[in-house]
Amino acid sequence: MGIIMEFEGAPVEGVGEGGAAGDVLDKIFNNIMKSNSIFTNRDALRNDYIPDRILFRDDEIAQLGQMLAPILRGNKPSNIFLYGKTGTGKTVVAKYVMRKLSERISQLKLNTKFIYVNARLASTQYKVLVELGSQLDISIPFTGLSLSEASSRIFDKLRRDGVNVVLIFDEIDYIVKNYDDNILYELTRANNELLGGNFVSIVGISNDLKFKEYLDPRVLSSLSEEEIVFPPYTVDELEAILRDRVKLAFRPGVVSEAALKLCASLAAAEHGDARRAVDLLRVAGELAEREGSEEVSPDHVTRASKSIERDRTYEVVRSLPLHAKLILAAALSAPDETNTGRLYSNYALMAKRLGIEPLTQRRISGILSELDVLGIINAPVVSSGRFGRSKRIRLAVPRDAVARALREDELISSIL
DNA sequence: CCTCCACTGGAAACCTAGGCTC
DNA sequence: GAGCCTAGGTTTCCAGTGGAGG
Length: 416
Hints:
Blueprint: H1 19-33, H2 58-68, E1 80-83, H3 90-108, E2 112-118, H4 125-135, H5 147-161, E3 164-170, H6 173-178, H7 182-193, E4 200-206, H8 217-223, E5 226-229, H9 235-249, H10 257-269, H11 274-290, H12 298-318, H13 322-333, E6 337-339, H14 340-353, H15 361-374, E7 377-378, E8 381-383, E9 389-395, H16 399-407, H17 410-413
Parallel strand pairs: 1-4, 1-5, 2-3, 3-4
Antiparallel strand pairs: 6-9, 7-9, 8-9
The structure holds a DNA duplex.
C-alpha cells in the first residue's frame, strides 16, 4: 500500500532542483516555525473538532442525554432519530454526548460501545457492515458475503462478548435513498436475535427532513421511537459560536470584528450552517497567515468563500469514477448548456478515442442524475415540446476547478 | 386539442469479483 | 478446485410523458 501525500492549498511555485530550492523551503519552514503564528490552536477550527461547550444546544444535549441514559444501568435505550439541516449541530451534539457517556461507561466498567458510521463514506449497505465490523474488530471481507451473513457475524461476536452497542449512524438518508432499508431492518431486528440482555441501539442522523417517507413503516416505527429536531442557527447565534471558536483558535485581536460578522452572515444565508461558518473562518485564517498578515480581514473571508467552493469541487471531482469524469470532460468541451443526447455522443467519442468501451446512454442518464445530486452539475428534466424531453445540463461549479481535477487523471488529461 | 420527439426512469436480466462448502 | 451464492454495477427493454408546433 503506497503513501499518498496531499498538499493543501496553493502549490508552491518555483521549487526545482538545485540551490534556490533550499532557500524557498527554508523560508516556508521558518514562517511555519515562527512562534507568532496568528493561530494558537488551529484544530479548534477543524470540522471534526468537538468543543468542550456547545452553544445554543443545551436542550438537545439534555434530551439526547436523557434518552441514552438507560445504558448506564445496562438497559437498552430507545432508537433515536436526529434531524435538521446541515451545520445545525446534530453530529457535534451526538459526538459530544457520546464522549461524555463513554467516560461514565469506562468508570462503571460497562461493556457498551459507541460506534460512529457515516453513510456518505460507507455508501453501500455492505460497506456499512464492513465499517461496523472493523470498529468491533470483526473482519468482514469487502465482498463475498451476503448482508445477512455479514450482520449475523457481527451479532454473534456481540453475543459472545456480551457487548452492547450504540450505533451513531450519520447521514443515514444516503443509503436509504440509494438502496432500500434492509440493513436498517437487520439492525433494528438485532435485538430479537441478541438474547441475554444485549442490545444494539441506533441514533440515526439525517439532513433530509423528508427522509422518513422512504422508510418501510416497520423500520420507521422502531427507528424513530424518539426524535430530536435541530433548528437552524440564527445570525446572532452563529456570531456567538464564532466568537467562542476565535478565542480558542486565534491569538487575541487577530480576527477583526467585521470579518467575524461576515462569516456569520454568509453562513446564515445558507440556512444557518455553523460548519460553513467555522470553515470560512479557518480558511480565511489560513489565507491571512500564508500572506503574513497580522489580521484576518473581511477580504480574506470573501476570498475564503470562493476558495472553499473550488476546493470542494476539486475534491469531489477528483474522487469520481472514471466514466463520471469522462462525462464531465465531455461537458467541459461542450457549450455551456447541453442535453443528454448531445452530451452522450460527445462522451462516447471521447471514450473511444481513449480506447474505453462507452457505457450505455441509460447508464449515463443515471450518472448524470447522481452528479446532479452531488451538485456538480445542474440537470433538470425539461421538455422542448416537439423536440423531445431531456435533461438540460449545465455545470454548477467553476469550470477551472473541474478542469484542474480532471487533469489529475492521467488518462483523461491526455485528451483535455 | 392532438401529435410526436427524445428522452426518462422503472424493472428485470446479466456480469463480475469474491467468499463459502464440500 | 468445482460449483454455488450474493452485492453492486451495468445493460436491455420498454411504457410513459411535457409541451411546442401544428
